[in-house]
C-alpha cells in the first residue's frame, strides 16, 4: 500500500515521500479494514514536517496526517455497527496512508449522500471551532466572539457554528481581499488587523458583550485580541502561526482580569469518552449534510503528487483547503 512518510525534518515539500509498505492483511475479530479516499493538509501537518509542531518533535520515521475519510473494505467477526461500503472518519494520527486495520470501535458510519471531500475535513477543524466556542467560556445568544486567522478552516467553521448558536462574529484578517468573501460567508464584522484594532472593534459592536477571542496567531496578535475583550474575558489560543509565544501584558491580566488559555484537540480525544466523541461528530456531520458547514477546497492532488500538494498547502494567500486523494484511476 502507498504511505506518505517523513524520514527527517526540513522544508515540507522536500522531506515528504510516498513509499510502499505491506498491506495490513485481513481483519481479526473486532477489527475493520478502511480504504482511504481523501486526506486534507492542515497547517499543523506542515509544521510537523518542519519539526515545529507540539512541545517536542515527533519520533521518526513518521506517517503524517490527523484526519481524512475512507470506506470500510472488510469487517472481522463480531462487527455489526459498520459494514463494507460505509464511509467513516480515519482514526488519526497517521492518516496519510492508503488503508488501515483498526479496532471497529474506533470508527462509526457517516451519513450517506454527503460530499466525501467535506467529510475528509470533519475530524479537526469543525470540532476545534465547536469546542472553543461552546466549552471554554459561557458565550450566549446575542454575544459576540472574535477570532484572528478568520479565513482559515477553523475560522470558516466558527463563523457558521456561531451563527447557528445565535452568536455574532468579529473576524480579523491580514489582507483586504479577504474582507468581502468573509462577509459573504456570514461574518458579521470583518476587519484588517492593526494597532488600533480595539477601537475599531468597539466602534463596530457598540455595547455588545464580547467575552471570547480565538487566537491562532500568537505573538503581539494575542495582545491585540485581549484589548478588545470585555472585562473578565478570555483569549483561547490554539495555534502560533506567527511562530512567536503569546503576549499579553499586565494591564490586561491584572487590571481587566483577562485570561489566556490553550486548546489542543488531541487532549480532548484523550479525556473524552468514545460515545461523546461519536455524538459530536454525528452532529457536525449533519451540519455538513445540510450545508451549514462548508469549507472551500482550492485543489485536490493525487497522492503521487504529494510534494506539489504540500508546497501548495504551505503557500500564503490560498482561498481554500488542499486535499490529497488516494482513489485509484
Features:
six-stranded mixed β-sheet, 2 domains, alpha/beta, 329 residues, Quinone Oxidoreductase, Chain A, domain 1, six-stranded parallel β-sheet, Rossmann fold
If you had to describe this structure to a student in words, what would you say it looks like?
The structure is a single chain. By secondary structure, the chain is an alpha/beta fold. It folds into 2 domains: 151 residues, Quinone Oxidoreductase, Chain A, domain 1 (Alpha-Beta Complex); 141 residues, NAD(P)-binding Rossmann-like Domain (Rossmann fold, 3-Layer(aba) Sandwich). Helix content is 30%, strand content 22%. The strands form 3 sheets. Strands 3, 4, 5, 6, 13 and 14 form a 6-stranded mixed β-sheet that branches. It has a 6-stranded parallel β-sheet with strand order 9-8-7-10-11-12, sandwiched between helices. The protein is globular. The two termini are 15 Å apart. The model has no long low-confidence stretch (mean pLDDT 94).
